[in-house]
Amino acid sequence: MHGLLVVDKPRGWTSMDAVRRVRRAADGAKTGHAGTLDPLATGVVVCCLGRATKCVPHLMGLTKIYETQVDLSAFTETDDLEGERTEVPVGAPPAEAAIRAALDGFVGDHRQRPPAHSAVHVGGRRAYQRARRGETFELPERIVRIDAIDLLGYEWPMLDLRITCGKGTYIRSIARDLGGHLGTGGHLSDLRRTAVGAYDLSLAVGPQRLEEPIAQADLLAVPDRP
């Protein structure tokens, strides 16, 4: 078996949970995925089967689109709903114009510090493993590419965004840094990946489909690489 299967990952699954279910439905075919989604996030995970696993580096480099909701009322340890909240008193909620101006500052090549609770390696261990042990450390900033941030809706303290970005961008970091810029809190209350390159939700199968066998005819063709 050789090709791609786009999975609409539900909340609570890891990306490897999706891979294991695809592998089982594909009668044990070699399977990998082209980009991790946190368990709290939903949406597109591109699974590669058979010889298509060689395409993983190419697919991981494709542009990604996310739709997210940011809660500006608090920071959290994990920059999402999993961490303990630290409420931020705000005298007057920021105006929409101020939010739009702040978002514009994130577009382009942008210096970003990954969340402490992330899979980045620090001293031979994952950052989230060290964070969970209560260790204090600071991850170095790195350059990420953010192509566009569209404001979809705003009703204090919730902010709905669509973010188009390149490889390695942490949406949780955008929420955290936006709050710091506005003088508010900032963490993700919801995150959904809607596309990886041309592979979007219109091509995706849900978890129930993975309870049935997958055949070669169910797979998408492997993309031509530049």
Explain how this protein is built.
The chain folds into 2 domains: 3-62 and 197-218, Pseudouridine synthase (2-Layer Sandwich); 64-195, Pseudouridine synthase, CATH 3.30.2350.10. It has 226 residues and is α+β, with helices and mostly antiparallel strands. Helix content is 19%, strand content 33%. The protein has helices at 15-25, 56-60, 96-104, 127-132, 171-182; strands spanning 3-9, 31-33, 42-49, 64-71, 74-76, 85-87, 108-112, 121-122, 125-126, 142-155, 158-165, 187-196, 199-200. The mean pLDDT is 91. The protein has 5 helices and 13 strands. The chain is elongated. The chain starts with a strand and ends in a 26-residue tail after the last strand. The strands form 3 sheets. Strands 1, 2, 3, 4, 7, 10, 11, 12 and 13 form a 9-stranded mixed beta sheet that branches. A two-stranded antiparallel sheet has the order 5-6. Strands 8-9 form a two-stranded antiparallel sheet.
List the SSEs and their pairings.
Blueprint: E1 3-9, H1 15-25, E2 31-33, E3 42-49, H2 56-60, E4 64-71, E5 74-76, E6 85-87, H3 96-104, E7 108-112, E8 121-122, E9 125-126, H4 127-132, E10 142-155, E11 158-165, H5 171-182, E12 187-196, E13 199-200
Keywords for this entry:
2 domains; 226 residues; alpha+beta; 33% strand; Pseudouridine synthase; two-stranded antiparallel ribbon; elongated
